[in-house]
Amino acid sequence: MATPAFTNATGNGANKWTELKYVDMAFASGQGVALQSSFGNINTDIADLTKARDRGAKILSFHGLGDQLISPMGSVNYFTRVSSVAGGIVETNKFYRLFLVPGFGHCAGVGSVSGSAGPAADTNSVPLPTQAQTFNALVDWVEHNNAPASLAVSSANGSVTMPICPYPKKATYGGTGSVTAAASYTCN
Predict the structure, then answer these.
(1) For a 10 Å CB count at each end of the chain, is N or C smaller?
(2) Entry pTM
(3) Domain residue extents for the chain
(4) How does pLDDT run across 161-172, given as a tens digit for each residue?
């Protein structure tokens, strides 16, 4: 992390990135790939996870659909690419599951905007996973081979519960029961 004394000789608030054209962005992307070995190969976009799979690793990731900074479609794209290398979605779900969380913002909290037709979207009304919940689901998968078929999340005040499903499944309302109760939904 740079200190306030850090000076970027070509930037520092000039917002020059807004002047980049497509060809400039493509060049910058290529340079980033070319320099990976100089920076410890820190890219996380390699889709071949077969070595991790073959070692028995389990990967549980989640991405908020209300993420204001990083598009959840990047996680969907990555999961799709991993699946194409690992033998399809069924095979991939044996060791890697992606959960897309409605209303979940960047890092934590609510990323939704309150609409005029409903209650305020906040931690009291939007069901979100807890760190312990996702960690415990991963531990259960690793230690007891119980792959999470869904995660039941709830709002802070308990007024709304909802299942979140491993991608590409999504929570589907069954047509009966409360729309704010997880029991009224299935993962399809």
Answers:
(1) N
(2) 0.77
(3) 47-187
(4) 999 999 999 999
